[in-house]
Amino acid sequence: MDKRTLRLLPLCLMLALLASGCAGTQTTEVAEAPATKEAVQQPQQLIYEGEVAGFSERAKTISVTVGKGDQAKVMMVKFDEKTKGVNQVAKGKAVQVYYEMRDKDAFATDIHLKFAKLPPGTKEIKTEELNKLIKEKAPLFLVDSRPKIRFDQSHLPGAHSIPVPELEKKQAEVLPKNKDIPIVFYCGGPT
Amino acid sequence: MSTASAGLAKKLGYSDVRVYLDGEPAWSKANLPTYSTNEFVKSGNIVLIDTRPRAKVIAGRIKGAYSVPFANLEDKLDDVPRNAPIVLYGGKEVTEALSLVRDQEFNFVSLVQGGYEGWVKSGGKTEKGPVFDTEIVWVRKLGKGEVSVADFRKAASGEDKDAVIVDARTKEEVAELGIFKNTINIPLDEIPARMDELPKDKKIYVHCSTGARADMAYSELVKHGFNVKFLLLNIKDAECDCEIIRP
Question: Does residue A122 lie in a domain region?
Fold first, then answer.
């Protein structure tokens, strides 16, 4: 096995195992049954997917922003000492919260961090290599996918601001004509 | 987000699409430079700092910049709130200044693209002349859903009769530390079940101990059609200065 195959191996595993996007806002649905084997066995499983909007140890409560844009809603769930994965929860993390209804209250049973998944045919780039490309002024089109306001505040050298909704609307119009130059996309981190 | 865009670019026929999954936070953490847009430098609620020697600053500087030569930087930043976005520019020393400010645990630190020369070239406004060694002043603007301390105080004193205050802390915290006047205690986790107790025709201001739970309660109440705001302030902060009914 050469080095490249070795490097690709964990990526393939990631592809096979992990759920959606950087900050993961694509497929967020209230009470969506996850497309896994478990879901077949437990079709009634309740889940909130989205970014943690708030977390209180004292009130034993987590709020999660579910859905995007105008449809975004902040959902509150309680947790208790039996809830799994609470220690990984922090504001801004992308999570899947499995919960159940106890009387009128939603209680989290299991919380997973969501990691970004690389779309087929794309590769990951790490800080060191990206820094090298930028420093060498190598051919590169660097895209900041975050909302414009975040770009305005702080962006990588030479980056172009193309928030996800803008790319979805304007497509190749906002990307370079030459389809063979390397394009690198980034946002606010892996979860 | 970046992965969604990368997938789309691949579909559009781009041959070499990569994703920098670690993103902007990893870049800053590696102490590599990040930049603000000139628009943000001009109109953002920022602290703009010129780290060059005083003589250069007197000869010309970006409008609104504080002159803080590199040697004084650490002292001068002491009292600046850590959530103030800091934008720096200067000469060679600015790289070191950038790491120093990041080490001081400021949440947002960036540079002006091209430094002073870049700013001038892009047609940005400048000023010149003597600089006064003033303290750095930065006041956070209210975010979405936040109530100002002044308005909150009016409700707590009873002066504003159209507002109701909700204390989202636990019963134990209230029992130990006391409660503001004109305030109902509904712990955050009880809000979904007890919101019927709140009036829909009045303003509701939620507070807790630091603002985190109040923010969560705000989201829950706004979703159910209440006219609600929250106080983002540590209530031990002297700024609050509302009368407390002691236990």
Answer: no
pLDDT tens string B190-234: 999 999 999 999 999 999 988 889 999 999 999 999 999 999 887
Q: Does domain B31-127 have CATH number 3.40.50.800?
A: no
Alpha-helical regions (H) of A19-116: 37-41
Rounded Cα distance between A33 and A42, Å, is 9
- Do B22 and A125 meet the contact criterion of CB atoms below 8 Å apart? no
How far is it, in rounded angstroms, from Cα A157 to Cα B131? 31
Distance CA A146, CA B237 (A): 34
Asked whether the beta carbons of residue A23 and residue B1 sit closer than 8 angstroms, the reply is yes
Verify that A14 and A63 share a domain, yes or no.
Answer: yes
Per-residue pLDDT tens over the stretch A49-75 = 988 989 998 889 999 998 877 788 889
- Would you list the DSSP string of B39-65? HHHHHSS-EEEE-S-HHHHHH-EETT-
Do A16 and A49 lie in one domain? The reply is: yes
Ramachandran angles phi, psi of B203, nearest 5°: -75, 140
Instruction: Tell me if A118 and B3 make a contact (CB, 8 A cut-off).
Output: yes
CB half-sphere exposure, A85, CA atoms < 13 A: 15
ipTM of this model?
0.78
Q: What is the CATH number of domain B149-245?
A: 3.40.250.10
The pair of structure tokens assigned to A147 is: 């909302």
CB of B141 within 8 Å of a chain A CB? The answer is no
Q: For A150, which residue in chain B has the nearest alpha carbon?
A: B36
A109 and A131 co-located in one domain: no
The verdict on A148 and A80 lying in the same domain is: no
Residues A70 and A101 in one domain: yes
Domain count within chain A:
2
Kindly list the catalytic residues of B.
208
**Same domain, yes or no: A20 and A93:** yes
Q: Does A131 lie in the same domain as A108?
A: no
Distance in Å, alpha carbon of B48 to nearest chain A alpha carbon: 12
Q: Number of A:B CB contacts under 8 A?
A: 222
